[in-house]
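ligand=adenosine-5'-diphosphate
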Amino acid sequence: MNIRVRLTLLFALLVASIMLVFSFSVYYLYNQYREQEFRKRLRDKALTTVRLFEDVGGITEELLHDISRNDLTTMYKEEITVYDAHNQVVYDSGEEPYHINANFLNQVRQGKDVSLREGDKEIVGVRYIDQKKQVLVVVAYAIDKYGISILERLRTILITGWAVSLLMVVLAGWLFSSDALRPVSDIIEQVKNISARNIHERLKIGRQNDELAQLAATFNDLLSRLEDAFSSQKSFVSHASHELRTPLAIMMGQLEVSLFQKRTIDEYQETIKETIEEVKKMRDLVNGLLELARLNDEVSQNHFSELRVDDLLWQTRDILIHHCPDYDVQIKFEEFPEEEALLQIKGDSALLQTAFLNLMENGCKYSPDHHVSLTLRAQEDHIRISFSDRGVGISDTDLPHIFEPFYRANSTQYVKGYGVGLALTRRIIELHNGRIWVFSQMGLGSQFVVTIPF
Ligand code: ADP
C-alpha cells in the first residue's frame, strides 16, 4: 500500500470516526430531549385529567370525547388510568384499562418520578392527593408519533450526511495527499535521473523551508560529498597510474638503450642496478598504496595488543638508522613517568611502526642536517609524541593538503617520495583513536604532533 492510499484511508477513517461520534451524540441527545419533553407533557396531561376527574366527580365517556376533540394536546393512542390506594382502577380513559404492575404503582405512591418505555409506548406515573387526602396514582401512556417521526427523519439525515461526507472526505483526502506528496514524487523522479555520469547535478529545493526541502538539501549535501569522494578517487587513480608509469618508462628507456648495441658487462650491470632501483621505488609505492587501501577498509581493533611506546620508538629509530646511517634521530622524555603503565597503549605495533617511521624519515629527509628530535610526554589520558626538525618547512598553502594522498609540496620535489606516507600515517593514528597535527614555518622547520589515548 503506498503512502498516498495510506494517508487517504487514515484521513478518511479519522474524519469518519469523528463524524460518527458526532452523529451518534446528536441522535442520542435529541432522543433524550424528545423523551423528556414527551413524558413531561404526559405528566401534565395526567394531572389535568385527574383534577378534572375530581372536580366533576367522575368523567363520562361523552365528556371525555368532548375533551379529546377540543383538546389540542391529546396525544396519539393516549390513555389515562387512575388507581386508588388499593390499586383498583377508579377511572380509565380507554376501553380496556392498561394493566401496570403493582411495583410501578407502589413506587409512584411513594412519591418517585417513575416512567418507562414499552415498545413505542411512553408510560409515566404521577401521584395525586385529592381533597379527601386520598392518594391516587395516575398512569398515562401514549405514543410520541410526531417525535419519533422527527427522530427517524433525523436518523436518515445523519446517515445520508455521514455517507456523503465520507465520500467527499475520501476524495478530498486523495487530492490533498497527492498534493502533499508531490514534492516527494518530484524528488524520486529527480533522484532516478542522477547517476555517476551526472553526479554534479542537484535536486531542486522548494521555496518553502519544510521537511521535504530539508530532505532535498540533505540529499544535495550527500551528493556533494559523494562527488568529492568520486573526484578524489579519480585523482587518486590518475596519480597512482602516473607514479607507477614514471619508473616503468625509465626502466623501458634504460633497457631499450642497453639493447640498442652490444655493451660491456660493467655497463649491463650498471643498467641492471638502475633498473633494480626503479623496481624498488615501484615496490615501495605499491606497498604504500596497498597498505592505504587496506586501512581504508574497516580494520578491526580486535587484534590490538599492549605496547610500550618508548620501546617502539627506539626500534623504529634503529630500523631507520640501519637503512640510512646518515640520519640522526634523538628521542627524549619531557618527564619520565613514574609508572611504566603510562607508556603503554593498545595498538598494532607494525602499523604504528610504519607511522612513526614515516614521520622520522620525513623529518630527516626534508632537513639539511638530517636530524629529527622526538619528545615523549605521558599526559592525563594519552601519550603525546612530537617530531621536530629544522628543515625546509611547509608553506601555508601546502599545509592543509599534506595529508592528502600523493600531495607533495613544490619546495620538496627534489627529494625522493610519492606523497603517500602522511596519508597512511594519519589513517593509522586515527585507527588508534589518536590525532595528528602539524606546525611549520618555511625555512625554520616543522613539528608533527601525535597523541594516542591509553
Ligand atoms: P613523501 O615524503 O613521500 O613525499 P609524505 O606523505 O610523507 O610523502 O609527505 C607529503 C609531503 O609533505 C611531502 O612531499 C613534503 O612536501 C611534506 N612534508 C612532510 N613532512 C615534512 C617535513 N618534516 N618537512 C617539510 N615538508 C614535509
